[in-house]
UniProtKB/TrEMBL annotation:
<dbReference type="GO" id="GO:0004826">
    <property type="term" value="F:phenylalanine-tRNA ligase activity"/>
</dbReference>
<dbReference type="InterPro" id="IPR004188">
    <property type="entry name" value="Phe-tRNA_ligase_II_N"/>
</dbReference>
<protein>
    <recommendedName>
        <fullName>Phenylalanine--tRNA ligase alpha subunit</fullName>
        <ecNumber>6.1.1.20</ecNumber>
    </recommendedName>
</protein>
<dbReference type="GO" id="GO:0000287">
    <property type="term" value="F:magnesium ion binding"/>
</dbReference>
<dbReference type="InterPro" id="IPR002319">
    <property type="entry name" value="Phenylalanyl-tRNA_Synthase"/>
</dbReference>
<dbReference type="Pfam" id="PF01409">
    <property type="entry name" value="tRNA-synt_2d"/>
</dbReference>
<comment type="subunit">
    <text>Tetramer of two alpha and two beta subunits.</text>
</comment>
<dbReference type="GO" id="GO:0006432">
    <property type="term" value="P:phenylalanyl-tRNA aminoacylation"/>
</dbReference>
<dbReference type="Pfam" id="PF02912">
    <property type="entry name" value="Phe_tRNA-synt_N"/>
</dbReference>
<keyword id="KW-0436">Ligase</keyword>
<dbReference type="InterPro" id="IPR022911">
    <property type="entry name" value="Phe_tRNA_ligase_alpha1_bac"/>
</dbReference>
<feature type="binding site">
    <location>
        <position position="247"/>
    </location>
    <ligand>
        <name>Mg(2+)</name>
    </ligand>
</feature>
<dbReference type="InterPro" id="IPR045864">
    <property type="entry name" value="aa-tRNA-synth_II/BPL/LPL"/>
</dbReference>
<keyword id="KW-0547">Nucleotide-binding</keyword>
<keyword id="KW-0648">Protein biosynthesis</keyword>
<dbReference type="GO" id="GO:0005524">
    <property type="term" value="F:ATP binding"/>
</dbReference>
<keyword id="KW-0030">Aminoacyl-tRNA synthetase</keyword>
Length: 335
């Protein structure tokens, strides 16, 4: 019986066929079941020994059935994988092949620039805690700087990230010092929108912490970044700026490339666009991140990625970038 079962099992090529076998051997009228029923007719002495044999046979059959089911499952999976591999992703697409969003294009370009300089790229959540967004970057409760960013609070007390600085503490704790990291992300602020302000926009934060990091390191990296993105000289200015998480802090502005610095609605007629505030990381922020400020220093910057994209491509109104207007967005092809 065992032998014929084994032969039939090998021939069963699908889970349905295996199920039929199960019925044929272990079902109500199955061969093994019949054997067990037959035990009634033998004497007590023989019953014990024979019973043990038949039960062992039954267990063996059950085991082999499950093994075969598993074999079939693996083989089916393999067949599916092979079929998928035959799908040729290099074939030309009929019709519009689509395009990347300009923010994605510039984000990837910046990621390449920074990774080539030894930075890692990190990701972070969009829903964060009050601690992550404010306290861990030296903005305690009741600090007036909280009003600098109008926050969307959720019912559970968490909030939508108002700036990518909300990830600083996470990065410092995860990697310790020394560390070089950039972390792009979407930010949300409850503010009135105009040509250069949206309630949803992208920033790209960067930090570099090591022994003896100074303002000249910061300026070098900012210059490199801008020349790589614009591939030409652009006018920038650095002025003092206040952020509780840096000391000293700076505002890095770029001469408005929409009007050439003459003044237009994009730059609020000032000729300058606030692009990338930055500074030396405040000792309290390092401490809260588990890094000793006596031993290490570092810089941080919070690049307005969406505004950088506007300047690079001459987009006059930030709202065009969030519009989902494919016709407008598809002009920006990836080189
Ligand atoms: C910050 O968010 C700080 N966390 C930046 C920072 C990081 C400073 C690290 C020092 C060290 P600010 O609120 O200025 O700063 O925003 C930074 C940039 O994001 C701005 O320069 C601007 O380019 C962009 N930005 C801010 N608000 C908006 C908005 N509503 N729409 C579009 N871009 C915005």
């Amino acid at each position: 019986l065992r032998q014929s079962f084994e032969q039939e099992l090998q021939r069963a090529g699908s889970s349905d066929a295996v199920e039929k076998l199960r019925v044929a051997y272990l079902g109500k009228k199955g061969s093994v079941t019949e054997l067990l029923k037959g035990l009634k007719e033998v004497g007590a002495e023989q019953k014990k020994e024979l019973g043990q044999h038949i039960n062992a046979l039954k267990r063996g059959v059950e085991e082999r059935l499950s093994e075969r089911i598993e074999e079939i499952r693996v083989a089916e999976e393999q067949r599916e994988i092979e079929a998928a591999e035959q799908y040729d992703v290099t074939l030309p697409v009929a019709g519009d092949p689509g395009s990347y969003h300009p923010i994605t294009i510039v984000q990837r370009q910046l990621e390449e620039v920074f990774t080539s300089m030894g930075f890692i790229v990190e990701d972070f959540k969009e829903i964060v805690t009050d601690y992550e967004c404010f306290e861990a970057v030296n903005i305690p409760k009741d600090h007036p700087a909280r009003d600098m960013q109008d926050t969307y609070y959720l019912e559970n007390g968490q909030l939508l990230k108002t700036h990518t600085s909300a990830a600083q503490n996470f990065i410092l704790r995860k990697y310790g010092a020394p560390v070089r990291a950039i972390f792009p992300g979407r930010c949300f602020r409850n503010e009135a929108t105009d040509a250069s302000h949206e309630n949803t926009f992208f920033q790209m934060e960067g930090i570099m912490v090591d022994k003896n990091i100074s303002i000249s390191n910061l300026i070098y990296f900012m210059k490199t970044m801008l020349s790589e993105v614009f591939e030409r000289d652009v006018k920038v200015r650095l002025r003092p700026g206040f952020f509780p998480f840096v000391e000293p802090g700076f505002e890095l502005d770029i001469s408005c490339l929409i009007c050439g610095g003459e003044g237009c609605s994009t730059c609020h007629h000032s000729g300058w666009v606030e692009l990338c505030p930055c500074g030396m990381i405040h000792p309290n922020v390092l401490k809260l991140g588990g890094v000793d400020p006596e031993e290490y220093t570092g810089f941080a910057f919070g690049l307005g990625l969406t505004r950088l994209v506007m300047m690079k491509y001459g987009v006059k109104d930030i709202r065009d970038l969030n519009s989902g207007n494919l016709k407008a967005l598809s002009q920006f092809r990836h080189e």
